[in-house]
Batch of 2 targets.
Target 1
Amino acid sequence: MSDANPQIPLPRPTPLSKPHWDGCREGVLRVQRCGDCGSFVFIPKPVCDGCLGSNLSWVESSGRGTLYSYTVVHRPQQPAFEVPYTVAIVELEEGWHMLSNLVGVEPDHVEIGMPLEVSFERKSDEITLPCFRPRA
Amino acid sequence: MSLRDQVAIVGIGCTEFSKDSGVSTLTLAARAILAAVEDAGVQASELDGIATFRVGDSVPPAILAQSLGIRDLRYFVDQFGGGSVSHSIVGQAALAIHAGIAETVVCYRALNARSEFRMGGTGRPPVDAIETQYQAPFGYFTPPQQFAMAARAHMERYGTSAEQLGAVAVQQRANASLNERAMMRKPISLDDYLASRWIVEPFRLLDCCLETDGAVALLLTSAERARDLRQDPILISGVTWGSGQTLYSNQQPDSTRTSAADMAPRLFEMAGVGPHDIDVAELYDCFSYSVLVQLEDYGFCKKGEGGAFVESGATALGGSLPVNTHGGFLSEGYVHGLNHVYEAVSQLRGDAGERQVENAQVALSAAQPGYVSGNTSALVLRRDS
């Protein structure tokens, strides 16, 4: 999964998501945070889903977290994905979840709760995907 | 006046369930509807409402109305959605009848889900939504992947085992062996289950539903009129909608809980029953795991104990709560939820043959519990007393 593969469906950033994808390209994992209630908001939203306030700004995540759940895909929906690969829900230190892929770990060694850190995987000039790898 | 027991299912019809129907979804729908009309002992010309749901893969109500010679369609529902809205359209039909908008409404779902449009299938580009931006690049597209993620979290938190997932598949296949409509009737063992290949861990092939060409139709009218028709009326005691536990944003704080958990109390209150009153349950089984989580979220067992409940035999024929007596999507066929309602009606009529649950009076039939889209819907049905 770490090799650039132009055939996988890369995101087309929208005004709402562009700050996040720009951050990934720059090596920074950004997340929205509500200035009113303090909630972390992800995926990008127009208003805070905690308090419905509009006072959202982009902040930098530590990029560290733990594995909340995962699935190892053996039957790819699109052939560009080399199987088996691991899709994960990562719980970041700040308490928010994001979907990603695990890199640098064989599927047999994946365990819920394992410590992870973001690993930016460049896919094109515009898009770098925030994947996660085990951390010590 | 409450909707409780005011509308009845008076006719049911289905086509053959196959991997290649060789006909259009229009033909499938018409065959199922005419079978339901025949079953009810009414005339097709009496139909004045049509309700269906689709994901862009089937014939719409207006085309069907023309094909069936219905010149003055008084009510229609053409709801976008998958299995989570399967029971919703029955509720919409009941509301229309109860409100006097229409008198005789048919609900149908017709799909060539194997030979034409395969759910979550390959080769289709994902839509360009904000959710997709944060799923597709990671190779996360399909219902089995989404439910596998939830199942893994459940296994970790509650110790749910592969053998418990397998018990669902084994029991449902045993039920299907007694069902002439079922696509898969050869019994399987737990060893067969464990030997089946991985699709998306923790799901093996035998955790996953079939892909089916077929149609089911349900004919509804007022309870009052139903009592003059051919079949014993099966009353809609409760119907509810629920939403909120969507997976799409990956913000769900607890992947082991579904929208059905929030909806179930409303459903039982409307029907005036509790989980202990349910004699038979037909639970949306796109994957084995969805049965376990619904057993918990509808309150048939404690949270986390769905696997043990199934393993105890409680959900098998002869158990305290037989589940998916037709074999479900895993073994009968995937008609997107309406085949579950069909089976519930058959059981309450006492027409289920060798797999009949003794003295079945009250049934739960449930749609996809809401993990993927967030949406869900369900019915409590009972015999007219």
Target 2
Amino acid sequence: MNRRSGWLGISGVLAALLGCSDISAPLRDDLYEWRLFVPAAVGSGTDTLSFHWPRSALPVRVWVEDTVGLPADFDRAITVWKSVYLYREFDARRVSDSVGADVIVRGSGLPASQFSRIRLHSALRPECSGATDLDISDDHTEFRTPVRIFIAPLASPEDPGLSQCLALTSIHELGHAIGIFRHSPNATDIMFANPVVDLPSAFDRGTAEVLYHVPPTLRLVRP
Amino acid sequence: MRKPYLLLTLILPAGATALSAQTDYYLRVGAIGASNLLRDGIVNKITVRQSIAPLVVLGGSLPLKRGYRAGLEGTISSGGFHSTEAGVEASLGTLRTASLLLDLSGPVAGQIRWWIGLGGLFYLPKDDDGIFLQGGTARLLAGAGADWRVPVLPRWDLMTSLRYDFHRFTTAELKARGFGQSQAISRFSASIGIARGLR
């Protein structure tokens, strides 16, 4: 290697290091409305309900009834939603005792809805159904734990579509529990009312990401 | 991702047996700080930065002509990194870095020598999540600095070093998320240790 080619090589390395502008962040406009709009607690008008788990409450404690493979489905659902976040905005772990859990998951049909609970129905597939009950205070200022998730198998265990339905419904219902209170209008999103895709889409991910950077209207209250 | 550690432990002793009479060795400890790893915007501005971290430096060199020396220098550091949004810091875990540089040094005046190096920097996150969801990354690294030696024993010097290095940072996960280009990162370190004398 002669001196000229040596300098050319060094110049190339320096150009590679020094060239280009700084990193550019992507536009995060792939999202849908995640907030819930309800009649105002006081007077006329509308209250906006939005919530995300504060960092001080992480990891969120999730208790899952050991039936029809739900614990494994929720382990995966937790991993899937955690992977959406770049800055550890959300974390959860499964706990063995339902006492003190922030989210309680039951593999059974839906009980009668209780007063002050907001029920988010989902998954109208023939193999399984799901719903999430949110306990919001009457004055629309407090988000009380536990969040209750119900996932009910509707098909026989031999039905090949059951395990897929349970898996994607677990991700969908946990999506409600992390703060996506509304259903997506797009059939290609996991948060569509009757989800058919297996994983969160770019819109689901974008929505989940943004909602953790918008101040919530509800304050977490643990019993 | 343990390759950098392995290389360090294999290459330096190998040089020792073959050229022990002419080879200079040093071991230093110190601290390293870096500029922002990342600038993002999700509603608010978010920055990600490594905390000032402890540093271990191991190196060696062989003589060239007129007081110049060529060598190999490796560093390992381990510390936290965090995000800052609206003035609030949040820990993102532990981030280790290892670097390996081929270097050239020469005399300035007295016991002071200049130093330049070129090599690789390896980011080795403790957990594969967030910006490192798809694992660590390796980056091209260029550095410069100065060494100051004070003889303390017949064959050993006290060695103090200042280093500046530069690289561009991105990860596979950031690229997958649509981040464009890469972030210019400057790192500064100061370290002190012992060196086998150049006498």
